[in-house]
Write a sequence for this structure.
């Protein structure tokens, strides 16, 4: 068996709230291989960003990763390692691109300084060398006139340029795994395409693995080889990207795919999934999707479905796997 | 926008600021001129009104000094003199006003400058420390202390310190600039004596200043601490010290803004504090001069005080531009 770059096993993250603990991430397990691009899909609040932050132990205040969760990255136990080792990992072997490049960059420091800082923290390079590398990296992410741009502040750059700076910052030390949390959500459509193109290009050049978090299935189709679908704190489906689009196994995934508008569609209204996500403080017994599901029957109200094997690389958390005859037309 | 255009608009803005400043100083001095003459008595009231001399002699004495002229005439003459750099004659000190200012102004500038620096440095450190551990016992204790100090009038705090350190503990001299035997002391002892007299006025102003700045720095740091770029800094692998620096650097902007607002109250605070400690700086001398209706010294003091305030706020503007690239533009 090949060793995985990243193994997440039974990750649980809970927040203390007035209504009791909110189990925002509830038993997520998956693996990633070196160089692989995995899409992590789900609607807002499903726990996908929190899963990503957990990989760097950056869970916001009030949140706690439950004992029993395990994250192994490059054969190191991330959750057990001391702060020092963790810091050496962050931004160096395992880095993150955040969603909103305006607020995720420090407004009073030049973008060059912010990129060079990564080099200064993790290597023995002098300030001058770090700066040169930063300018070089800004050129690689497609920023014109990088030497002048490096001396500018985030507010002097466009949204797309700022996101390129974020990417430069995350990739300058050629990490083994990059987590991109909705990297294009805050950008114009044309800029989105450019940024995705850049990410794909850099991935192919450096051989990094990419965990792409998004609610946009179009992005996943273009970038990822494998997809994880999350719903209500759990992974509900995992499949190679082509299979997921051709033969989704989970009713939730079906709903997501049906909600994507297409040009040749004859429908007048966009498809929506009825209902809303239940609260993380009170997940319903049985299947968490059952109230929104067209196929639900008694078993779904009592017995929580396990992640069941549907094909060789296809896992689905649904009772329909065992009882396909229950599927309604 | 071309470079010459922005250069011209910058020059225009600078010119406008200077005109504004001159207007403020003129307005304050005029108000002082009128108010002082509306108060009963004049500079010679105590000296000649009680003397058993004929009323005509008193009138002649006043006519000689142009005190019988209409207010408008006096005002125009005074303004003309000030514009030519002649600040007039101090009837209390029986010396030219400029001579008195040369003596007392540097003392107050030193007191206020050093107190401002300690206030800023102490407040920024204390507030930043609190902001990163808000809600802890240490934070709450410091907050309670600064709130009490912040609410005390400066003369009350001055009297408390006087009671404690001068009368109770007898560690420090209570009043004056130097001791009575100052002239007979060796040089080192003279320095020590001056410093000992400096401590209480400085401590009073600094305690108040630190509490003001600490309160603002705390809330500003608390706000910066929640910004997404702090998470970015952590994700880059920075140690907590580096992360705090990121937040602190950004939190300075609103605190410096407050410094501009605090400056005038520091000027008036110095008046009370010097009075309590009978420390002969600008404030103390001005209070004496008001009592003695020393018209020309008081108006000159108001001109100086308002000029100091205006220069202080211009300095703060400059510092703000240094700290925040967004206002530079």
């Amino acid at each position: 068996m090949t060793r995985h770059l990243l193994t997440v096993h039974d990750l649980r993250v809970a927040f203390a709230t007035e209504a009791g603990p909110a189990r925002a991430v509830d038993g997520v397990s998956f693996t990633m291989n070196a160089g692989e691009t995995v899409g992590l899909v789900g609607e807002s609040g499903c726990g996908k960003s929190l899963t990503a932050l957990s990989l760097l132990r950056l869970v916001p205040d009030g949140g706690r990763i439950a004992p029993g969760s395990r994250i192994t990255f490059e054969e190191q136990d991330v959750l057990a390692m001391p702060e020092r080792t963790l810091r050496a990992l962050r931004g160096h072997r395992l880095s993150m691109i955040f969603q909103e490049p305006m607020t995720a960059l420090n407004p009073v420091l030049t973008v060059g300084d912010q990129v060079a800082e990564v080099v200064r923290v993790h290597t023995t390079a002098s300030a001058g060398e770090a700066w040169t590398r930063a300018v070089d990296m800004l050129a690689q992410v497609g920023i014109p006139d990088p030497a002048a741009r490096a001396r500018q502040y985030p507010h002097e750059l466009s949204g797309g340029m700022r996101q390129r700076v974020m990417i430069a910052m995350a990739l300058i030390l050629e990490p083994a795994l990059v987590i991109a949390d909705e990297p294009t959500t805050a950008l114009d459509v044309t800029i989105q395409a450019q940024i995705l193109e850049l990410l794909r290009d850099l991935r192919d050049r450096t051989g990094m693995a990419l965990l792409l978090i998004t609610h946009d299935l179009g992005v996943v189709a273009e970038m990822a080889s494998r997809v994880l679908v999350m719903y209500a704190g759990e992974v509900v489906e995992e499949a190679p990207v082509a299979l997921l689009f051709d033969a989704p196994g989970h009713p939730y995934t079906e709903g997501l795919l049906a909600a994507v508008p297409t040009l040749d569609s004859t429908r007048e209204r966009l498809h929506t999934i009825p209902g809303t996500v239940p609260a993380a403080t009170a997940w319903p017994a049985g299947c968490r999707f059952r109230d929104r599901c067209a196929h639900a029957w008694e078993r779904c109200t009592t017995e929580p479905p396990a992640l069941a094997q549907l094909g060789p690389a296809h896992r689905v958390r649904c009772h329909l796997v065992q009882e396909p005859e229950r599927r309604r037309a | 926008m071309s470079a010459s255009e922005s250069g011209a608009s910058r020059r225009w803005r600078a010119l406008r600021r200077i005109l504004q400043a001159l207007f403020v100083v003129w307005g304050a001095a005029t108000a002082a001129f009128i108010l002082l003459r509306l108060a009963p008595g004049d500079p010679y009231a105590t000296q000649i009104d009680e003397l058993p001399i004929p009323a005509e002699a008193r009138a002649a004495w006043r006519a000689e000094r142009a005190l019988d002229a209409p207010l408008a005439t006096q005002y125009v003459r005074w303004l003309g003199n000030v514009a030519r750099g002649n600040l007039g004659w101090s009837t209390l000190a029986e010396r030219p006003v400029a001579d008195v200012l040369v003596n007392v102004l540097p003392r107050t500038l030193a007191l206020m400058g050093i107190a401002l620096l300690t206030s800023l440095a102490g407040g920024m450190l204390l507030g930043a420390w609190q902001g990163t551990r808000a809600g802890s016992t240490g934070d709450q204790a410091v907050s309670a202390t600064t709130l009490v100090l912040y609410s005390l009038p400066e003369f009350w705090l001055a009297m408390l310190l006087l009671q404690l350190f001068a009368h109770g503990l007898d560690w420090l001299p209570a009043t004056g600039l130097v001791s009575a035997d100052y002239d007979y002391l060796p040089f080192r002892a003279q320095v020590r004596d001056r410093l000992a007299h400096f401590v209480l006025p400085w401590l009073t102003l600094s305690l108040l200043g630190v509490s003001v700045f600490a309160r603002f720095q705390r809330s500003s740091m608390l706000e910066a601490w929640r910004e997404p770029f702090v998470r970015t800094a952590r994700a880059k692998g920075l140690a907590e010290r580096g992360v705090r620096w990121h937040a602190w650097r950004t939190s300075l902007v609103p605190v410096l803004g407050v410094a501009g607002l605090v400056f005038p109250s520091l000027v008036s605070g110095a008046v009370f504090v010097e009075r309590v400690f009978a420390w002969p700086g600008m404030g103390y001398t001005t209070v004496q001069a008001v009592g003695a209706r020393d018209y020309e010294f008081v108006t000159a003091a108001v001109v100086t005080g308002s000029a100091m305030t205006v220069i202080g706020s211009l300095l703060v503007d400059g510092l703000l531009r240094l700290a925040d690239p967004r206002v530079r533009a």
About this structure: The CA atoms of residues 232 and 243 of chain B lie 9 Å apart.
